[in-house]
Amino acid sequence: MSDEQASRSYLASTMGCYCPRCREGRLFKSQRAYKFGEILKMNQACPVCGQPTEIEPGFYYGTAYVSYALTIALSTATFVAWLVLIGMSVKEGDHRIWYWLTFNGILLLALQPIFMRLARSIWISWFVKYDPHWKIHPISRESTERIVKEHMNNW
Ligand SMILES: [Zn+2]
Question: What is the DSSP letter of 31?
């Protein structure tokens, strides 16, 4: 990785599932979210700066809340879009709300791999700060000491 791409924004870094510390290394082993069995396979540490991706045992349990928030946000967005573009009512014979429910359900299912990855990327970005000088700063000790290696490959 070269210096010129070192200043990825927080949003671009998080959405792209990059390491929050250097914003250059990839969090996940495969870049394809839809490769079955590889969805949540993470690099044990960032391949660029060495930041561990599992800071402590069970670090990613909390991502369920992030996934839930993403699901609510997307559902709200599609609901409003549906209401504006297609419309819906509770009148008898108007099935448009059921069409929205079906559409939204399928969309949420289809996006699960992306949401699962995004939830982890967002989660770790709240705990690991961006360090533009990661090349000269050592990884903070408290974050590496709590690593449990055996847990790393069970995801
Ligand atoms: Zn990194």
Answer: S
- Count other Cβ atoms within 10 Å, centred on residue 21: 26
Ligand 1 centre distance from Cα of residue 34 (Å) = 23
Say how many domains are in the chain.
1
Q: What is the pLDDT of residues 35-85, one digit of tens each?
A: 888 899 999 999 999 999 999 999 999 999 999 999 999 999 999 999 999
C-alpha R_g of the chain: 19
Mean pLDDT value across residues 105-117? 96
Burial (0-12, 13-18, 19+ Cβ within 10 Å), 36: exposed
- Cα(135) to ligand 1 centroid in Å equals 10
Dist. CA 73 → ligand 1 center (Å): 29
**Distance, first Cα to last Cα, the chain:** 27
**Domain residues for 86?**
3-154
